[in-house]
Amino acid sequence: MNVPIRKPKTTSGTRSESVYAGLRRAIIEQALMPGDKLPEDIIGDRFGVSRTIVRAALARLHAEGLIDLQPNKGATIAQPSLSEAQDIFETRMCLERQVIARLIEKVTDRDIERLEQHVALEMKANAHDGPAAIRLAGEFHILLAALSGNGVLARYVNEVVSRCSLILALYSRPHSSDCSINEHQQIIDALRARDGRTAIDAMDHHLQAVTDRALLSSNSEKHRDIRSILDRYAS
Amino acid sequence: MNVPIRKPKTTSGTRSESVYAGLRRAIIEQALMPGDKLPEDIIGDRFGVSRTIVRAALARLHAEGLIDLQPNKGATIAQPSLSEAQDIFETRMCLERQVIARLIEKVTDRDIERLEQHVALEMKANAHDGPAAIRLAGEFHILLAALSGNGVLARYVNEVVSRCSLILALYSRPHSSDCSINEHQQIIDALRARDGRTAIDAMDHHLQAVTDRALLSSNSEKHRDIRSILDRYAS
DNA sequence: GTATACATTAATGCATACAATCTTCGAGAT
DNA sequence: ATCTCGAAGATTGTATGCATTAATGTATAC
């Protein structure tokens, strides 16, 4: 055997991959909302594949906590409880602190440049107020984790950040992301200066702000969990 | 065709679950070694299910990093590289520190008792030197994570601990786990005393010991990655 | 008028058939 | 003998059909 060129180590064929990617993007951009049903044949029709492929994609989304999968009842966009939301935020903070700790040691000028470019993208998307703004805000953190060089860490950050989109959709009111972008810039600045203390503080503050925006406004009636609503109207 | 042991009546979803659980245990107990191939037909025969079910189980194992899945070539037990191994250990330490931090706050006497019982199990399994000893050593950490009450954290700890079994199988020599058990006991003692500093130190020391046993003995020719061997004979 | 039982519909659970792809092995040429 | 090409076998990729289950609609009994 010659030099091993690592091929894409993802799951089977690129077909379930594209269904997975499409659904994931729809969820993260909040085109599909928590509680929405995901019938296999409808998805299969839209993507031009059979239910077999769709099921593989759904299984993966389920493994990542983005959808619920009830036996004989099918898939729905996950509705994290407040308790789960707190678990996710706590774990996310734990993981992202480690990301920052690694980046302080090894971040390069080229990395900084990519981060700056990303924030520029965020600002542009924010100006047009497109659905991509939400996604890009999360992808900033995913990019940070990827640049940390620890693939395992990066995968977990990817998951918790994605699930945070669900939490925001459920519990938060429509938010202007301007402050998020400023905070992202602060993190970059601290990384550039190799100032670990400030970088971690900035990340902590940023995540705390996101958490508060999500969980403290949970009085908002935005979520679609009918049961908890009906409970209040049943008596 | 072999006789399907599974009863055909019970609502499925449990079926791929049992295939997943069986394969996972075989991997963690090192009955299946890194690099081994996992043909869908053979697995399906042994478990008395069709390839459809097997593929679901394999997809889940892949999502958890226990098997590699190459397109058109099937599944093999994952062979983490040294780099991946380091990533896993680093992430594991990050996560388990958080587990300890939580437990210091909320661990109950009943929790302590369950942990003590588990260590007793470990000692017994170690005496008989059965394949369960390896698994139980890991499950101590999974139990800790479960008791922490953060389900997300628990899931990630479960994954990294499981993957550590792979790393040990690849790079470590057969180890006596006695010291591990002693270290587990130290962690319990520190938790009982609500001594956070000591508990975290004990966990750090324990994981560092495991890491060293795994990675520093990587000169051992035990692993099956032909390339790294050839590299030393090619020049 | 209400509630229970039954029929209908729709969706998922699963196995299997077939297609696409990789692997192996042998024949023929150099 | 070695290399190349190719055909046969083996394994995975995908679609589809049938069985099973949940959800819904309807009728009948009280």
Biggest interface reads:
A-B, 34 and 33 residues
Q: Low-confidence segments of chain A, ≥5 residues, pLDDT <50?
A: 1-11, 219-223
CATH topology of the largest domain in chain A: Four Helix Bundle (Hemerythrin (Met), subunit A)
The CATH H-level homologous superfamily of the largest domain in chain A: GntR ligand-binding domain-like
Number of strands of chain A: 3
Instruction: Look at the helices and sheets of chain A and give the structural class.
Output: mainly alpha
Question: Could you describe the 3D structure shown?
Answer:
Two copies of one chain form a homodimer. A three-stranded antiparallel beta sheet of chain A has the order 1-3-2. The N and C termini of chain A lie far apart (72 Å). The first copy, chain A, is mostly helical and 235 residues long. Helices cover 69% and strands 4% of the residues of chain A. Chain A has helices at residues 14-28, 40-47, 51-63, 82-106, 109-128, 132-147, 151-171, 178-192, 196-215, 226-234; strands at residues 37-38, 67-70, 74-77. The longest helix of chain A is centred in the middle third of the chain and has 25 residues, at 82-106. Chain A folds into two domains: 14-77, Orthogonal Bundle (Arc Repressor Mutant, subunit A), CATH 1.10.10; 82-215, GntR ligand-binding domain-like (Four Helix Bundle (Hemerythrin (Met), subunit A)), CATH 1.20.120.530. Chain A has ten helices and three strands, in the order αβααββααααααα. In chain A, α5 (109-128) runs antiparallel to α8 (178-192). Chains A and B meet through α3, α4 and α7 of A and α3, β2, α4 and α7 of B. The structure holds a DNA duplex (30 and 30 nucleotides).
